[in-house]
UniProtKB/TrEMBL annotation:
Residues 10-210 form the Tetrapyrrole methylase domain. Its main location: cytoplasm. Keywords: Cytoplasm, Methyltransferase, rRNA processing, S-adenosyl-L-methionine, Transferase. One of its GO terms (molecular function) is rRNA (cytosine-2'-O-)-methyltransferase activity. It comes from Reinekea forsetii. This is Ribosomal RNA small subunit methyltransferase I. Catalyzes the 2'-O-methylation of the ribose of cytidine 1402 (C1402) in 16S rRNA.
């Protein structure tokens, strides 16, 4: 079967541009033109993209307030043989956007869900941030009230992973202020604003540096934001460190080398393989 051929009884989860309309893929365009229906957050917003693409497929609103009610009807249409696309206002659906309920209804009905990948603000921001991207944690939008926001940020304060948040123009200053409290004003941070759009900017520095830049320029408080915070640095502990040696001695008395190495790596970080080789070498002495 041609991979570009539209399949009946199928929900297509289609990524759309996060700003620059040229970023939409040819495959996404073909799917949007070929399906029987497009589900979208805001029909007026998505209509502008469809007009740009010359796509005349009917639109149906699907958002957080009606998703549960409409999912059953959409599944019925899929079961009748239709193919349907799901899009969000921008980027990849379900990533801090509606679609979770619908996708699970479709899966429960044992119908096919097909991804049409493309733009995602979180991935785009990570790729240019300069912060570690091997392990990261996406928290989406923080609560609007300071108390609830600080509760979440305080719980993340000792996390070693790069932290990623979405934020809006009317809350960016408040969130930065709370991050300075929870993480410390000297924690490295990146604020990516209006990604792929005309007025895209990326601010890098400490939280204090970025707070100052945002406060000094009204334009830096406009638009849509991805905020990335460097995780707490993991302490580098050498194999010869007395703490490592003590734990190795304790564990090897009761566990095989492979399990002991895994525990040591979890406690101190580093390579399980190197710890394993170290433990085996100790045993051969």
């Amino acid at each position: 079967m041609n991979s570009n051929q539209i399949i009946r009884n199928t929900l297509y989860v289609v990524a759309t541009p996060i700003g620059n309309l040229a970023d939409i893929s040819e495959r996404a365009q073909q799917v949007l033109r070929s399906v029987d229906l497009i589900c979208c957050e805001d029909t007026r917003h998505s209509a502008r993209l469809m007009d740009h693409l010359g796509c005349t497929t009917p639109l149906l609103s699907l958002h957080e307030h009606n998703e549960r009610d409409r999912s059953a009807m959409i599944v019925e249409r899929l079961q009748s043989g239709q193919s349907i696309a799901l899009v969000s206002d921008a980027g990849t659906p379900l990533i801090s956007d509606p679609g979770y309920v619908l996708v699970n209804h479709v899966i429960d009905a044992q119908l096919q869900v097909v991804p049409i990948p493309g733009a995602s603000a979180v991935i785009t921001a990570l790729s240019i941030s300069g912060l570690p991207t091997d392990r990261w944690r996406f928290e989406g939008f923080l609560p609007s009230k300071t108390g609830a926001r600080l509760k979440i940020l305080n719980a993340l304060a000792t996390d070693h992973l790069t932290l990623v948040f979405y934020e809006s123009s009317h809350r960016i200053e408040g969130s930065l202020a709370d991050m300075a409290i929870a993480f410390g004003a000297d924690r490295p941070i990146v604020v990516a604003r209006e990604l792929t759009k005309t007025f895209e900017t990326v601010l890098r520095g400490t939280i204090a540096d970025v707070q100052q830049a945002v406060a000094a320029d009204n334009n830096q408080r406009k638009g849509e934001f991805v905020v990335l915070v460097q995780g707490v640095a993991t302490e580098v502990v050498g194999i010869g460190d007395e703490r490592v040696v003590a734990l190795v001695n304790e564990l090897t008395a009761i566990l095989p080398p492979k399990k002991a190495a895994a525990i040591v790596a979890k406690v101190f970080g580093g390579s399980k393989k190197l710890y394993y080789e170290y433990i085996v070498a100790l045993g051969s002495e």
